[in-house]
Specification:
With 119 residues, the protein is an alpha/beta fold. Helix 1 runs parallel beside helix 2. It is globular and about 30 Å long. The N and C termini lie far apart (28 Å).
Length: 119
């Protein structure tokens, strides 16, 4: 899986161009995330605005990606579509991740400003 990576201020924005994160791509996604976050800023924001579907394997891959960052770095999520947001809410993963409505204000937030938090 190819991820789009952009460093903005003190944050790394990773956009998933695929519409699904499911069992068929979960391992590839996790490997791509490990490579994308091997180095870089402490703050990593995963843009899920293109993702229309996520299953338990995909959710597990997102959680595994968060754990790969360790205690110092953090994974935040942005742009969850309604179905994906529902999966995070039903599994209570919305209490584990900082979830932003969208990427509006990302540059300011990455440089110390505020980013709207939906959780």
């Amino acid at each position: 899986m190819k991820l789009e990576i952009q460093d903005i201020g003190e944050a790394r924005l990773i956009t998933i161009p695929e519409s699904r994160i499911d069992a068929s791509v979960a391992i590839c996604f996790k490997e791509a995330m490990a490579e994308a976050t091997k180095e870089g800023p402490e703050r990593v924001i995963l843009d899920l605005s293109n993702v229309d579907f996520i299953d338990s394997s995909g959710l597990g891959a997102v959680v595994a990606s968060m754990k790969l960052l360790g205690d110092v770095r953090r994974l935040e999520l942005a742009g969850l579509t309604p179905l994906v947001e529902k999966v995070f809410r039903l599994t209570r993963m919305d209490s584990v991740f900082t979830i932003h409505d969208d990427l509006t204000g990302l540059a300011g937030a990455a440089e110390g400003g505020g980013m709207k938090n939906a959780s």
